[in-house]
Amino acid sequence: MSTPELVATCWTSAGDVAPLDVPEVSPFPIEERVRAIADAGWVGIGLGQDDLRHVRDTIGFAALRSLIDDVGLRHVEVELASGWWRSDLKWRGTWELLLDASTQLKAEFIKIGAAIETPLDDITPLVEPLRRLADEAAAVGARVALEPLPFGLVGTIPKGAELIRAVAHPAAGLLVDYWHVFRADTTLPELVASLDAGIVFGVELSDAATDISGTLFEDTIHNRRLIGRGDQDVEGFIRAMREVGFDGPWGVEIISAEHRQRSLVDALTAAHDSTLETFARAES
């Protein structure tokens, strides 16, 4: 097997900042982050909405895209849009920021979520809103990748696949994060049966202890481990996504109190190298 292409998703390189911090802005200058990601062997970068606002208001998206090109990164992801199913327009500001960032940075997709709420049994109310969102994205050459969350309206990957197939739009697909596979108690055979390569826009690798610490949300933002350093079957997940037909690049999402205390170089090196070691075991 060839060496997998790995993307440092936004939290993997963000440093001492966590989801729902106000603001969610990395303490590392964006230029330092981009160069460190490239130097550590990654092929791509992910950036969250507050970092993107900071970039827009300082060096600008054009300068960031130029830097990304200069260091040789080939893959960009932007996140996170939520609230898109609501009738109020409070979510539009972030959505329009992400559309602009996606266009100027030539992002592969815009990651979207579906709130911290009780999962829906019937996803029908989300079909038309998501189709409209995909229409808006397609109009500027962008795509949206929905990330199901066990504590969100779309609670499992199979339910997310059901929604994407109902939307039936080429600009709408799934982001399959392994954390939200095992924490939703979705088995790997169930995962494979629910997916096909055409609806999977991105995959993220995570690892963790068997037991949940605190709430599901607290666990997901404080306790992820380096790939292959936890108790989850990451190797089996890699093989399962290969069976589905996914051919990368693979995002790596390390969100934890421990990871936030690492230096930028140490964080990126540890996350990259541990992931490659896991791929070697998965493909041996």
Automatic annotation (TrEMBL):
Pfam families per UniProt: AP_endonuc_2 (PF01261)
Xylose isomerase-like TIM barrel domain segment(s): 34-262
Gene3D superfamilies according to UniProt: Divalent-metal-dependent TIM barrel enzymes
UniProt keyword annotation of Electron transport present: no
GO molecular function: isomerase activity
The entry's keywords: Carbohydrate metabolism, Isomerase
Record-linked InterPro entries: IolE/XylAMocC-like (IPR050312), Xyl_isomerase-like_sf (IPR036237), Xyl_isomerase-like_TIM-brl (IPR013022)
Transferase keyword on record: no
Name under which the protein is recorded: Sugar phosphate isomerase/epimerase
Record organism: Microbacterium allomyrinae
Organismal lineage: Bacteria, Bacillati, Actinomycetota, Actinomycetes, Micrococcales
